[in-house]
Every structure is written in C-alpha cells, then in structure tokens.
Amino acid sequence: MAVAEPHVPTRAAGAAAEVEQGTSLWQDAWLRLRHNKLAMASLVAVLLILATCFVVPLFIDLDPNAQRLDNKFAGPSAEHWLGTDQLGRDLLHRIIEGGQISLLVAFFATFLTGIIGILYGGISGYVGGKLDSVMMRIVDGLLAMPFLIIVILFRELIKVPVEKLSDWLIADVGLSTDLVLRFGNIAPLIVAIAAFGWLTMARIVRTQSASLVELEYIEAARSLGIGHARILLRHILPNALGPIIIYATLTVPSFILYEATLSFLGLGIEPPHASWGSLIKEGANFLETRPALILIPGLVFSGTLFALNFLGDGLRDALDPKSSKD
Question: What is the chain's mean pLDDT, rounded?
C-alpha cells in the first residue's frame, strides 16, 4: 500500500499566504485626495500660480515699475501680453509682482501663526487645569476684538521700528536696497497679521492636545520618565498634524484676502511695489474707461482664492474622511 507523501507548500502557495502590506495614514490620505477631481485640479492651479509668480521671473527680465507714459493704456501686444496701465507699466509684470507679495504675506503669516498657535494651544491642552482656563480666556478676549482694526493699529505701531531696521540693513550691513525695501514693505503687514491670526489655530491645537493627553501611550511615556517637552513635541503635536494642515491650508486664502483688503484701503503694500489688492484699487479708478485694469487682477485674485479653498476642502476630506460623511 502506497504511503502518501507529505504535502510541501509550493512557492506560489507561500506567496498567496503572505499578509498584504498595509498603507500609512498619509498614503491613504493621498489616495483619497487623488480621487477628488476638484481638489486635484485646484492643486494643479495652485502649482501653476506659484510657478508663474516665483519661477518664471527667474528666466525673464521682470520690471514691473518701468514707466512709459507714451505707451499708457496700451492693448495686448507681443511686447505687453496683457497691455499696460495708466503709467505705461506692463500689467502682466505687475500682476506677477503682486502675486509674489500677496502670496509671501499669506504664506509667511500662516507660518508664524502656525508656530505661535501650535505651541500656545499645545501647552494649554497638555497642562490643563487653571492654566489652561486662563490661557483660553486670553484667546477668547482677543477673538472678541475686531481683527482688521487691531491689525491696522498694530501695523502702524511697528512700522517705524521696521523702517529703522531697514535703514540699518542698507547702511551698515550693506544689503541690497531693493531687497530691504521690499522686506520693509511687507514685514509690518506679516507681523501684524500673524500677531493676531494665531488664535483659532491655538484653539484647534488645544482641543487636539487635550484629547491626546488622556491616551495610554502618553501615560506610558510619563511612567518611563520622558520629559514634558519631549512628550509634547514628539508624541502629541505630531499626532495633531492633520487638523493643523487642514486649517493652515484654509488660512492662506483668508490672509490673502486680509492683505488685499488692507492694500485696497491704502493701508497695506505701499508704492512702488504692488499686490493684487493694490492693483484692484488702481483698476477701480478706471472702471468705466479701462475695465481690464480691474478685471484681470480681480480674476487672478479670485481664481487663486477659489483654488486654495477647494484644495483646503479636499485636504480636509482626505485627512479626516469622517467629516465628509457628517
């Protein structure tokens, strides 16, 4: 009677038995974002805008302040693709420079608000108790103040020190005059917006920190003698990164809008430099005779805001899929 040979698993059977490798949370978020066609189209639009404002000037001779009074209000041509303004300046060059300044103000202000809000809210939620209550009441009090009015007053307050710093950088340090003047033009606005724009970020991070501090792995870290600063910076704040990214993405268009509003009121970027807000203000003076001077910057400005907002919504749905089902 023949004895059955023991079954030896083949290589194919072993491969089939392998456990399927999992994906990280960030990979899952990217897959969800890729399936959001509106968000991906907005991402492409944002990248094109950034490339036009910051990469294209590296390859062309950008001179947005060159005036030719004999060529004012010229129509589109091979030399001036979008025509010229009331002083004969190239409108396309002015829009590119305006995009540089508007986006730099928004991105740097968002970066500063993120640092302040993350640290403030993280400490408040981690410590808890009376200190948490006091810190949040301070935030509530500042949120009750009219944002734009406070920003305007604070900007005027720090304007003189920034001008003195600019003069010192030019005279004593020897930096480029154009670079320093541009920095001195936007720095007060960035600092003013960031000084009061971190409040909502702090509340979001505080909520996340207060919920994470109760988890078991935080208690385990404490029992191992890990310091409070390391627990906060290495274990709590990285796990709150999703909501932080979502809110930061939605903050950028808000800050662009604030900058444009202040520049439109004459309280933002000062001549000869331009932002999208100041270009819209200049174009409004010729609305009846030369509507292109306000329509073109206005369309670029509106398109950028729409793209950033749609991208922020897509990131929110990708990083927090539960929110899209509520």
Answer: 83
Give yes or no for a contact between 150 and 196, defined as CB atoms under 8 angstroms apart: yes
Question: If you ran DSSP here, which 8-state letter would residue 78 be given?
Answer: S
Burial 41-71 (b: 16+ CB within 10 A, else e): ebbebbeebeebbeeeeeeeebebbeeeeeb
What are the boundaries of each domain within the chain?
33-53+89-325
How far is it, in rounded angstroms, from Cα 213 to Cα 236?
7
* Residue closest to 185 by CA, chosen among 259, 107, 273: 273
Cis peptide before 253 (omega within 30 of 0): no
Structure tokens at 254: 């808000």
pLDDT of residue 17: 44
Of 28, 32, 49, residue with least CA distance to 40: 32
Q: Give the up-direction half-sphere exposure of residue 318: CA atoms within 13 A in the CB hemisphere.
A: 26
| CATH of segment(s) 33-53+89-325 | 1.10.3720.10
Helix axis angle for 91-127 and 276-284, nearest 10°, is 130
Return the sign of the alpha-carbon dihedral for residues 228, 231, 232, 234: positive
Segment 287-319, tens digit of pLDDT? 888 899 999 999 999 999 999 999 988 888 887
> 90 φ, ψ to 5°?
-65, 120
Residue-wise pLDDT for 133-150, tens only, equals 999 999 999 888 888 888
Query: How crowded is residue 272: how many other Cβ atoms within 10 Å of its Cβ?
Result: 13
| Residue pLDDT, tens place only, 59-101 | 888 888 888 888 888 888 888 899 898 888 999 999 999 999 9
190 neighbors 109 (Cβ within 8 angstroms): yes
**What are the tens digits of pLDDT across the range 15-54?**
444 555 656 667 888 888 888 899 999 999 999 999 999 9
Q: Give strand ranges (E) for the chain.
A: none
